[in-house]
Design a protein that fits this description.
Blueprint: H1 2-15, E1 32-33, H2 34-44, H3 49-60, E2 72-74, H4 86-89, E3 102-103, H5 112-122, H6 127-150, H7 176-180, H8 196-199, H9 208-223, H10 229-234, E4 239-240, H11 242-262, H12 267-284, E5 285-286, E6 291-292, E7 294-296, E8 301-303, H13 321-336, H14 364-376, H15 380-397, H16 407-411, H17 423-434
Antiparallel strand pairs: 1-2, 2-3, 4-7, 5-6, 7-8
This protein binds alpha-D-glucopyranose.
The site of alpha-D-glucopyranose has 7 residues, from helix 2.
Length: about 425
Amino acid sequence: MNTNLIEAAKNILELNWRDGFTIPTNKLYPFQWNWDSGFVSLGHSYFNLNKSIQELKSLFSGQWENGMVPHIIFHSEKEDTYFPNFDFWDSNVNKGAPQKPKTSGITQPAVHGFVLENLLNKHPDNKDLLAYAKDLFPKIVKYHQFLYTYRDPHREGLMAIFHPWESGRDNSPLWDESLNRITIDRDKLPAYTRRDTSIADASERPTSDQYDRYVYLLQLGKLNQYDGPAIVEESPFLIQDSMMNALLIKSNQSLINIADRFGFDSAQLKEWQQQSIRSFNDKLWNEDLKMYTCYDLRDEKQMAVKEIGGITPIFAGIPSVQQAQHLSDYLMDLHNRDYYLCPSFDVDSPLFDSKRYWRGPVWPQMNWLIYKGLMDYNFFETANIVKSDLIELVDKLGFYEYFESRKSVVKNASKGYGGELFSWTASSILDLIKSK
Ligand code: GLC
C-alpha cells in the first residue's frame, strides 16, 4: 500500500510543479500559496532537493520590503479562474510590494523557519542547501520582525491577524462571531464575482455572506497599504491566533537552532522567543476547555472554542507535559467516538460541519503538525492514530484537499472534499511515511 501511495504522491508533486514553484491543485488554486509551499518543499526533498530550494526561492521572491511574506504569489497574471486575483488585491498600493511577481496583501502561517531546519536535518551536507540556508535565514528573520513590529500592538510577543485567510483555517466557525461584528454596506463594498463555487461544490465552500466580510477586510487592508497603523487600530477583526503564534514560535526555535549551527547571532530571536512563549501560556491556555484558544483583541477576551488550532502548540513545545496530556486525551476521546483524527472543529458544537471547509473535516497538513508534536511529547499511541487515520483516508478516498471526519460517513464515501490531486496532501503523506 505504502509504495503505491509514495509513487502517487511523487506524481502529484510533479504534476503540480510549474516553472519554479508548486500549485496546491489545478484550477481551484492556480498560484503559489505561502504555507502550502512550506509543506510542499518538504515533499520535494525526497526526490529533488533543488525543487525544495527553488520552491522557497520563488516564495521569497514575493517578500515585501517591510518583511511580509504574502499569502499568495501570483507568478502568472494570465490565470483567470481565481478570485481575488492580483488586480483586486492591488498590492502595489504599498510602495514596498514587488512589481513582479504580484502578490496578495496579507500573510499566512510562519512555517519557513521549521521547514528550513527540517530540510537541513534531512540533508546536512548538501552544499546547495547550506548556501541557500545562509541566504534565506535573514529573510525569515526579517519576516518575523515584520510580525512583531506591525502585528503586535501591545508588544507582548503575540502577533495578530486582521483577516481569517491569514490563519490558514479560512472559514472555521471560530471566526464567525468576530466577523459578524462587521456591518456590511453593500453599496460601499467593491463589486466582485467569486470563482471558487464554479469549480468546487458550493456546499463545501464558504457562503456568500461570509465572502462579503472577507472582501470588506481585504478592502480595509488595501485602504491602509496593507501595513498602515490604522489596521491594528481600527480593524473590527483583530485576533491573536493560537496556530499562527504557535508556528511562529516553532520557527523562532528553528532559527535559533540554525543560528547555532552556522554561528549566527540569535540574541533578538531568543528575546522574541522568551516573551512569546510566556505570553502564549499566560494568555491563550483555557483551563476549562483544557486547550489553547485564540484571543480577540477587539473584544478583549479569549475565544473559548475547541478547534484544531488549539492543539498545534504541541508542535512548538509550548505546553507543559500535563497540558500536552490534555491535548492528547482530547484526541483519544474523539478516536474512541469514531471520528477520524483530527476533526478541525469541536464535534459537539452546533456549528460543526464534517463536510464544509474548515468547519469540521480532517486536513492533511494539520495531521502532519499534530503527529510531530505528539511524537515530541512521547504520546506514541495518539500520534500513530493521527498518522494512520490520514493514510487510511488518502488510501481509500484519494489525494484530496481535505476529508470527511465521521467514520460512519467515510464508510460509504468514494472521494474526499475540495480540490483533487492536492500538493500538501501528497507532501504530508510522503513525510509521514518516509520520516521517523
Ligand atoms: C485554502 C486554505 C488555505 C490554503 C489554500 C491553498 O484557502 O484554507 O489554508 O493555503 O486553500 O491550499
